[in-house]
Each structure stands twice: as structure tokens, then as C-alpha cells.
Write a structure and sequence with these properties.
Layout: E1 3-7, E2 12-18, E3 24-31, H1 34-45, E4 55-57, H2 63-70, E5 75-77, H3 80-85, H4 98-112, H5 124-157, H6 171-179, H7 191-200, H8 209-218, H9 228-262, H10 277-293, H11 297-303, E6 309-313, E7 316-320, H12 327-340, H13 345-356, H14 361-382, H15 388-401
Parallel strand pairs: 1-4, 4-5
Antiparallel strand pairs: 1-2, 2-3, 6-7
Length: 402
């Protein structure tokens, strides 16, 4: 049997093919170009069928991984930290080179491949959802950063608008800063003009114009103010950035909603208590691929970070937080578990019981996540849509049998 080690980089790659004995059968470097990819796959095909040529790489996704999977190779990802820890077996000098790394990767696959998991091609509908969900997460993170920057700017030079509305990254707050970007612009703002502003922008925050003005004027005054023109330009730039991000997030939300409607497996989880459109998309996109490749709910819990790690040595035994897990899957699962306890008596009882045993909130949420994952795994593997009545009947049956 042959083994392929692929050391990737942004501009070039090194590939090594070795045999069962660890001897080098072939080795070459390639550029990151379509012509080089075509030549590489032809060269690999000369050594055997793609299904019989497993490839190890320090990546779990990306163009190279997608091309290898599309070509029919078994792709075995290895975490760079795990691979780095194994380096001393090839020598203690610490020498490093890209061709040498491709050989070491292939040899690591030869000796330890049975301990590693293979990647699988994503279901096309889940892949589309995953791209949308991850882009939305990036934009939400950018919105948070832009909002924090605007808060810092206002706190330093004009704190008043910071305290007027519930959220600064809201349409009404951005409308106010567009009309009144500096203390000078707001100097003649009275109750009548504030009321006109609220009507013009359809304000629905529940505060009267007088209350909004009171919040604006009761804020502390910056001791060293910027020139009005400069502050207005800075505030305007930050407002424009936030408006753009709000528009792109709304567009991504609409695209996600449309994609969920076309996803054949969305109906399996759509009735989960407390799950919304975005969280449902996150579960499908991040947890779904894990459920497709694991053999048990417990394995899924470990990969999603919902199961702890036990460490035992001599007389010492401890149970610890699991760091080695799919963080996106953990985030989507724990977000659902948190919301579910407000809609499900069963989920709320599991959570409150965990808290009564002295567990902190994050730990109690992970306990609930693990319980929900068993339910989700059953729905996913049996292709049965979640039904609260069936779930209640199953719990009642198990309680009676116990």
C-alpha cells in the first residue's frame, strides 16, 4: 500500500509518496495553479487508483482538500500540533523543510493512520448552508467590532448619544447620528425637533422625546472636544460602516432562510424547542456534517465539545473541559441548548438540576447540550423529524421501565 503526504502552502505544495516500508516512491513540488494540480493528479493516478491512495494533510478544509476529495482520494487531516509533537521520532535536531515535512506526514499516516479520521465530502445543501452561516458569523463579528469602535469614539468625545437608545448598532441610533453627528449639530435640538425626528424615523423604543433628550443632555461632557467637522466626519465614517454591515447581515439572513427551505434535512430539526432560523442553519451546517461521519451519539458529543475529558494518573483523577473539539459546532449546539430551556420543561429541568448540583452556567449548558445531542443524533440517523410528543412518550416509557 502507498501513502501520500501533502505539505501545503499558499503559493506552492510538496508531495511525497511512500510505500509500506517507508521508502520514498515519488516526490515533487508543485505550484498553486490549475496546471500544476492537473499534473499532480495525473502523477498520483500513475501510482494507483485514487481510492487506494490516502492523502494526509494539515488541513480540514480549503481548495486543496476539496480537490483531493473530488478526485476520489481518502483525505486524512492531522492537527498541526499533533504532528509537531510527533516530530522527535524522525530526529531530535529540529531540522525542517517542506519536502521533509511531506515525507514525515506520509510516514505518520503509514504508522498512525488507523488512529486518524478521514474527511468526507459534504452534502451539497449542508455545504451551501455552511458557507452562508460562516460568512454571517464573520459579518456579525465585524458588526460587533465596528459598534465597539463607535462606542469608544462617542465615549471619548460625545457620550450623549451612547445612552439614548437601547443599542448603538440599531437603525434608529444610526439615523440619529446621521442627522446629529456632533454636539454642535445637536445644540438646537429641542423637544419638538426630537418628536419630529422620532416620527420621521418611526421610533418604537417606548421613550418620549423628553426622556430621550434628558438622556442626551445628562451624559458627561468631554473635557477636550474635537472640532465639530472632524468629529462629524469620524462618526459618519463609522455609521456608514455599521449601516453596510447591517445590510449585508440582513441579506445573508434572507439567503439562509431561502437555503433552509430547500434543504431536505431541515425538517428533521425544525421543530426543536427554541430553535430559530439562524440557529437551525448553524446546527445543520456545523453539527450535521459531524453526525454524518460518527458512529454514535457519544462520539458526536466528543467532537462537538459537549462531553468532558477524564484524566487519571495514579491516585489522581479529574474531569476537565474538552478543548480539542469543533468550536463552531459547540457554539451552535450550546446556543440552541440555552434557548431550549425557555421552551421545554424537560430541558429546563436538566439545566436546573445541574445548577442545583453546583455546576456553573457554562457547564450546565454543556450537560444539556449532550442530552439534546442524543435526541438530534437519533433524529438524524433514523431520518425521523423531531416531535415533542414522541420525545415525551419515549422519556415516560424509559422512566416507567426504570
Amino acid at each position: 500500500m502507498l501513502f501520500v503526504g501533502w505539505d501545503w502552502a499558499s503559493a506552492s505544495h510538496d508531495v511525497t509518496v511512500i510505500n509500506d516500508a517507508g521508502g520514498v516512491v515519488d516526490r515533487w513540488a508543485m505550484a498553486h495553479s490549475e496546471e500544476a494540480f492537473q499534473q499532480t493528479f495525473e502523477r498520483l493516478a500513475g501510482h494507483g487508483s485514487p481510492a487506494e491512495l490516502p492523502v494526509i494533510i494539515e488541513r480540514t478544509s480549503g481548495l486543496v482538500v476539496d480537490r483531493l476529495l473530488a478526485a476520489g482520494h481518502r483525505v486524512v487531516p492531522v492537527h498541526p500540533t499533533s504532528f509537531w509533537a510527533a516530530r522527535p521520532r524522525w530526529g531530535a535536531s529540529g531540522a525542517k523543510s517542506d519536502p521533509g515535512d511531506s515525507y514525515k506526514l506520509a510516514d505518520y499516516l503509514r504508522t498512525d493512520g488507523h488512529r486518524l479520521h478521514c474527511l468526507h465530502q459534504l452534502d451539497p445543501s449542508l455545504r451551501r448552508l455552511q458557507v452562508l452561516v460562516r460568512m454571517r458569523e464573520d459579518h456579525v463579528r465585524a458588526r460587533t467590532a465596528a459598534s465597539n469602535e463607535l462606542v469608544a469614539l462617542l465615549e471619548a468625545h460625545w457620550p450623549g448619544p451612547r445612552h439614548m437608545f437601547h443599542r448603538l448598532a440599531s437603525t434608529i441610533a444610526l439615523d440619529f447620528l446621521t442627522d446629529y453627528p456632533s454636539p454642535t449639530a445637536a445644540s438646537r435640538l429641542g423637544e419638538a425637533r426630537m418628536a419630529a425626528f422620532c416620527r420621521r424615523h418611526s421610533y418604537r423604543g417606548g421613550k418620549t422625546p423628553a426622556e430621550l433628550l434628558s438622556r442626551l443632555r445628562s451624559a458627561p461632557i468631554a473635557p477636550v472636544g474635537l472640532p465639530a467637522e472632524l468629529l462629524a466626519a469620524m462618526v459618519g465614517a463609522q455609521v456608514q460602516l455599521l449601516r453596510t454591515l447591517l445590510v449585508t447581515i440582513d441579506g445573508l439572513d434572507a439567503a439562509i432562510k431561502s437555503e433552509i427551505g430547500a434543504c431536505p434535512r431541515a425538517g428533521l430539526l425544525s421543530a426543536l424547542p427554541g430553535v430559530g432560523t439562524i440557529n437551525l442553519a448553524q446546527l445543520l451546517a456545523e453539527v450535521g456534517p459531524i453526525l454524518d461521519r460518527v458512529s454514535s451519539a457519544e462520539e458526536a458529543a466528543a467532537q462537538c465539545g459537549a462531553a468532558p475529558v477524564t484524566r487519571s494518573s495514579g491516585k489522581s483523577t479529574g474531569v476537565y473541559f474538552r478543548w480539542a473539539a469543533n468550536r463552531r459546532a459547540r457554539k451552535s449546539l450550546t446556543a440552541f441548548a440555552h434557548n431550549s430551556r425557555f421552551q421545554s420543561d424537560w430541558a429546563n429541568k436538566l439545566y436546573t438540576d445541574a445548577r442545583a448540583r453546583g455546576k456553573r452556567n457554562p457547564h450546565a449548558i454543556r450537560i444539556l447540550s449532550r442530552a439534546w445531542l442524543r435526541v438530534i443524533y437519533t433524529c438524524w440517523t433514523t431520518q425521523t423529524a423531531y416531535d415533542p410528543a414522541l420525545h415525551h412518550a419515549a422519556r415516560t416509557s424509559r422512566a416507567a421501565a426504570a
